[in-house]
Amino acid sequence: ASSRRNNGIREDPRRFLVHLTMSSTRTFESSIVDAPCAKVWGKVRTMDFSWWKLVKKTAVTTGASTSEVGSCHKIDYNDGSSWTVRLCEMSDIDHFLTYEVVTSTEALPVTSAVHTIRLRRITATSQTFVEWTTDFSNDATTAVVEDSRFKKLEAFKDLAAACTA
Fold first, then answer.
1. Torsion angles phi and psi, residue 85, rounded to 5
2. Gyration radius from the chain CA atoms
3. CA distance linking residue 127 with residue 36, whole number of Å
4. Phi then psi for 25, rounded to 5 degrees?
5. Nearest-CA neighbor of 102 among 115, 93, 90, 91?
6. Does an H or E element contain 157, and which?
7. Contact 160, 35 (CB under 8 A)
8. Which pick of 72, 112, 155, 161 has the fewest CB atoms within 10 Å?
9. pLDDT digits (tens, 9 = 90+) for 60-115
10. By three-state DSSP, how is residue 99 classified?
Protein backbone atom coordinates (compact mmCIF):
# COMPACT_ATOMS: atom_id res chain seq x y z
CA ALA A 1 0.00 0.00 0.00
CA SER A 2 2.99 2.28 0.44
CA SER A 3 3.53 2.26 -3.30
CA ARG A 4 1.43 1.46 -6.29
CA ARG A 5 2.06 0.03 -9.68
CA ASN A 6 1.69 2.27 -12.66
CA ASN A 7 2.39 0.64 -16.00
CA GLY A 8 4.76 -1.75 -14.28
CA ILE A 9 6.75 1.09 -12.63
CA ARG A 10 6.85 1.22 -8.87
CA GLU A 11 6.49 4.80 -7.58
CA ASP A 12 8.35 6.08 -4.59
CA PRO A 13 5.88 7.33 -1.95
CA ARG A 14 8.49 9.90 -0.80
CA ARG A 15 8.26 11.76 -4.10
CA PHE A 16 5.66 14.05 -2.60
CA LEU A 17 7.93 15.25 0.21
CA VAL A 18 9.03 18.84 -0.04
CA HIS A 19 12.79 19.18 -0.04
CA LEU A 20 13.98 22.13 2.01
CA THR A 21 17.46 23.52 2.38
CA MET A 22 18.40 22.85 5.98
CA SER A 23 21.33 24.35 7.79
CA SER A 24 23.08 23.39 10.94
CA THR A 25 22.35 25.73 13.79
CA ARG A 26 25.86 25.31 15.18
CA THR A 27 29.05 26.64 13.70
CA PHE A 28 32.41 25.40 14.81
CA GLU A 29 35.69 26.80 13.58
CA SER A 30 39.20 26.35 14.89
CA SER A 31 42.71 27.56 14.32
CA ILE A 32 46.18 27.43 15.78
CA VAL A 33 47.75 30.61 17.11
CA ASP A 34 51.54 30.66 17.28
CA ALA A 35 51.66 32.00 20.83
CA PRO A 36 51.43 30.47 24.32
CA CYS A 37 47.94 29.93 25.72
CA ALA A 38 48.48 32.46 28.53
CA LYS A 39 49.17 35.22 26.00
CA VAL A 40 46.17 34.34 23.83
CA TRP A 41 43.91 34.03 26.87
CA GLY A 42 45.06 37.49 27.99
CA LYS A 43 43.63 38.89 24.75
CA VAL A 44 40.39 36.86 24.72
CA ARG A 45 39.33 36.96 28.39
CA THR A 46 38.97 40.77 28.48
CA MET A 47 36.08 40.54 26.01
CA ASP A 48 37.15 43.85 24.51
CA PHE A 49 37.82 42.22 21.13
CA SER A 50 40.50 44.88 20.53
CA TRP A 51 42.37 42.30 18.47
CA TRP A 52 39.51 41.92 15.94
CA LYS A 53 39.51 44.36 13.02
CA LEU A 54 35.69 44.23 12.73
CA VAL A 55 35.31 45.74 16.22
CA LYS A 56 35.59 49.51 16.72
CA LYS A 57 35.26 49.59 20.53
CA THR A 58 33.67 47.85 23.49
CA ALA A 59 32.45 48.93 26.92
CA VAL A 60 31.15 47.14 29.98
CA THR A 61 27.58 48.34 30.52
CA THR A 62 26.65 46.29 33.60
CA GLY A 63 28.85 44.47 36.07
CA ALA A 64 31.89 45.33 38.11
CA SER A 65 34.46 44.00 35.65
CA THR A 66 34.89 42.53 32.18
CA SER A 67 35.23 39.04 33.60
CA GLU A 68 32.22 39.09 35.93
CA VAL A 69 29.72 36.43 34.92
CA GLY A 70 26.48 38.22 34.12
CA SER A 71 28.22 41.41 33.03
CA CYS A 72 27.02 42.99 29.80
CA HIS A 73 29.33 44.36 27.16
CA LYS A 74 28.44 46.70 24.30
CA ILE A 75 30.37 45.88 21.14
CA ASP A 76 30.46 48.59 18.47
CA TYR A 77 31.40 47.28 15.04
CA ASN A 78 33.09 49.25 12.28
CA ASP A 79 30.01 48.90 10.07
CA GLY A 80 28.02 51.02 12.56
CA SER A 81 26.08 48.19 14.21
CA SER A 82 26.25 47.41 17.92
CA TRP A 83 25.54 44.33 19.99
CA THR A 84 25.08 43.99 23.71
CA VAL A 85 26.28 40.63 24.93
CA ARG A 86 26.11 38.98 28.35
CA LEU A 87 28.98 36.94 29.72
CA CYS A 88 27.39 33.62 30.72
CA GLU A 89 30.42 31.61 31.74
CA MET A 90 34.19 32.00 32.06
CA SER A 91 36.98 29.74 33.24
CA ASP A 92 40.56 30.78 33.78
CA ILE A 93 41.43 27.14 34.42
CA ASP A 94 39.90 25.72 31.25
CA HIS A 95 40.44 28.92 29.22
CA PHE A 96 36.99 29.47 27.79
CA LEU A 97 34.22 32.01 27.85
CA THR A 98 30.61 31.88 26.72
CA TYR A 99 28.49 34.88 25.89
CA GLU A 100 25.04 35.44 24.42
CA VAL A 101 23.74 38.24 22.25
CA VAL A 102 21.14 40.18 24.25
CA THR A 103 20.31 43.14 21.99
CA SER A 104 21.39 44.65 18.71
CA THR A 105 20.96 48.08 17.12
CA GLU A 106 19.89 46.34 13.92
CA ALA A 107 17.52 43.43 13.61
CA LEU A 108 19.45 40.18 13.80
CA PRO A 109 18.57 37.41 11.35
CA VAL A 110 18.26 34.92 14.25
CA THR A 111 16.34 34.83 17.50
CA SER A 112 19.38 33.90 19.59
CA ALA A 113 23.10 33.23 19.35
CA VAL A 114 25.36 31.82 22.07
CA HIS A 115 29.12 31.94 21.43
CA THR A 116 31.88 29.98 23.15
CA ILE A 117 35.57 30.68 22.61
CA ARG A 118 37.81 27.96 24.03
CA LEU A 119 41.60 27.77 24.10
CA ARG A 120 43.73 24.67 24.52
CA ARG A 121 47.47 24.51 25.14
CA ILE A 122 49.57 22.73 22.56
CA THR A 123 52.34 21.73 24.92
CA ALA A 124 54.75 20.29 22.35
CA THR A 125 55.05 23.59 20.49
CA SER A 126 53.90 26.33 22.92
CA GLN A 127 51.08 27.19 20.53
CA THR A 128 47.37 27.56 21.23
CA PHE A 129 44.46 25.72 19.67
CA VAL A 130 41.52 28.13 19.46
CA GLU A 131 37.96 26.97 18.85
CA TRP A 132 34.89 29.16 18.47
CA THR A 133 31.44 27.61 18.56
CA THR A 134 28.15 29.41 18.01
CA ASP A 135 24.78 27.86 18.77
CA PHE A 136 22.02 29.63 16.86
CA SER A 137 18.29 29.36 17.30
CA ASN A 138 16.64 27.11 14.72
CA ASP A 139 15.71 30.09 12.53
CA ALA A 140 19.32 30.48 11.35
CA THR A 141 19.61 30.32 7.58
CA THR A 142 22.49 28.92 5.58
CA ALA A 143 23.59 32.50 4.86
CA VAL A 144 23.79 33.30 8.60
CA VAL A 145 25.79 30.16 9.33
CA GLU A 146 28.22 30.80 6.47
CA ASP A 147 28.67 34.45 7.47
CA SER A 148 29.47 33.33 11.01
CA ARG A 149 32.04 30.85 9.72
CA PHE A 150 33.86 33.43 7.60
CA LYS A 151 33.89 36.04 10.37
CA LYS A 152 35.41 33.51 12.77
CA LEU A 153 38.15 32.69 10.27
CA GLU A 154 38.91 36.42 9.90
CA ALA A 155 38.90 36.80 13.68
CA PHE A 156 41.44 33.98 14.07
CA LYS A 157 43.83 35.75 11.69
CA ASP A 158 43.43 39.00 13.62
CA LEU A 159 43.91 37.23 16.97
CA ALA A 160 47.06 35.51 15.71
CA ALA A 161 48.46 38.83 14.46
CA ALA A 162 47.70 40.53 17.80
CA CYS A 163 49.39 37.74 19.76
CA THR A 164 52.54 37.67 17.67
CA ALA A 165 52.99 41.45 17.36
1. -120, 150
2. 21
3. 5
4. -100, 15
5. 115
6. helix 142-164
7. yes
8. 161
9. 999 888 889 999 999 999 999 999 999 999 999 999 999 999 999 988 888 899 99
10. strand
